[in-house]
Amino acid sequence: MASKDAENQRSRGPPGFLPGASDPDHGLHILPSNPGYQVWQRGPPPPGNLPPGLEYLSQLDLIIIHQQVELLGMILGTETTNKYEIKNSLGQRIYFAVEESICFNRTFCSTLRSCVLKITDNSGQEVITVNRPLRCNSCWCPCYLQELEIQAPPGSIVGYVAQKWDPFLPKFTIQNANKEDILKIVGPGATCGCFGDVDFEVKTINEKLTIGKISKYWSGFVNNVFTNADNFGIHVPADLDVTVKAAMIGACFLFDFMFFEHSLAGL
């Protein structure tokens, strides 16, 4: 009985936390119609001039991204638009991302397709826009490699993710709005991740210090073979600039497209 009471308390929030109330210290809001379901809704912004909608990122040192399984794509063996849930370390959803692209691009350009990823908060307001143009993905073509544009809020560019040419390792830079390099991301030589996690290390520009990582979690043989749904974790310092965290979320989407997006049509 005690364990059941404890579980009920965890699902309802801290002591004194009533359905329909807000807890600014934890960023939680309990829906009156469903007291057992916790979602984060925007509360009073922390000190500083942060882009609206990114306030909660200032508190996080772990961001979990879960790609939703597309049953239609599994059945037909076709590429459908990607959808992602973005969660905190407790598994509570903080954002939802949806790909917007045309069927022609998904069919004929596959993982290289141009698209827009719109990230909304739990109230449905768009807070981040990720623009991906059609570009190459080959170490033999160093002049037109992958690039993402990050907007937060939509219409205001805060950064870029740019692929850098390297004959052996996947390398990328996170840039500010002026396209000045801020951080580097270095991936492993092999990204298949057949029996373990795949880590992309986030480093300083000189690559001497590692400050975080973007990990593609291995979910087991069955999931890897029969679905194209992936799970990622972004490990960063909690005090990292929120616009850089937003760019790392965009980088995570890019890695999914480039290295882990496999449809049943290709099996």
UniProtKB/TrEMBL annotation:
Cofactor needs: Ca(2+)
Listed GO MF terms: phospholipid scramblase activity
Region (Disordered): 1-25
SUPFAM superfamilies, per the entry: Tubby C-terminal domain-like
Keyword Signal: no
One CC-aspect GO term: plasma membrane
Keyword annotations: Calcium, Lipoprotein, Palmitate
Biased composition (Basic and acidic residues): 1-10
Family label: Belongs to the phospholipid scramblase family.
Free-text function comment from the UniProt entry: May mediate accelerated ATP-independent bidirectional transbilayer migration of phospholipids upon binding calcium ions that results in a loss of phospholipid asymmetry in the plasma membrane.
Protein name listed in UniProt: Phospholipid scramblase
UniProt source species: Bison bison bison (North American plains bison)
